[in-house]
């Protein structure tokens, strides 16, 4: 879609569904001021401008994050609004607060700007309707995002405050996550209550409330799970997770390589070149998928993933550094080497994932 401030913008296909729904629902109001089919064009313009304001909200988060040196992968607009894919967490509660506050501040600023325009600038009736709707929408977006529970911005503000008071990020995240679950249940109850007193669109109210509540509940639960995972990160140790490995030449039949690994009690096979330097790691998945009767005629090289520089890690790497290295170059296996350059073993990403799965 574009790269404002150098940040890639993506639009999910679900956005087009919402755009159609918004256009159809808003068009009857527009039709009171202009004739069809112009009314549909104006209603569609409202849908586009509404999501443009959501984009402004997300750009606020992303720009402030980048000011603090946090990498931003992209901004994606979807059925429930938008999300800024910030790759790292702020390292202080103050920065967390500012990154979280930037979005709602811009949304509320757009609402104030729209209200001021309505008061000060003469406009045609249809333009007044459009500005009124956008002003109200930005007010709702700003206020809703300030609700005090993760994954909403208000939840991040709560987390920043508790983090500042207690000095414990995990405690703050868990508290804000449970607050998010309370917010999710509240949204669902309010949606049901409104539908009970509403008119013909009551089922739409229930469906929308259920979608929003589900989004908040899942996001809150994920925040709590990630907080528990973060407790384990300092305990991660590449040496402790490593599998013993055997080295074989590139033209070694797979059956022979597997036999050597079994005899040595190794859980990984590393392919070496003519100078005995590692050149790749045999994919465990590919080995399992190869029938035993074919293994004598399959060279290990054909099942080997070439070692990129990012796949060679120090055997001494631990904690956050280990997680960052794995995230930087995603792979199924990594070669671990001693400070002297000698091979220590192989770290299998699945083994690392199992450590987190127990959180």
TrEMBL record:
Coiled coil: none annotated. Zn(2+) binds at residues 57, 61, 153. Binds 1 zinc ion per subunit. It comes from the Bacteria. Keywords: CBS domain, Cell membrane, Hydrolase, Membrane, Metal-binding, Metalloprotease, Protease, Repeat, Transmembrane, Transmembrane helix, Zinc. Residues 241-300 form the CBS domain. The keyword Hydrolase applies. The keyword Secreted does not apply. Its cofactor is Zn(2+). The chain crosses the membrane at residues 7-26, 38-56, 97-121, 127-150, 171-194, 206-224. GO terms for cellular component: plasma membrane. It is found in: Cell membrane. The active site is at 58. One of its GO terms (biological process) is proteolysis. Belongs to the peptidase M50B family. This is Zinc metalloprotease. It comes from Actinoallomurus iriomotensis. The lineage of its organism: Bacteria, Bacillati, Actinomycetota, Actinomycetes, Streptosporangiales.
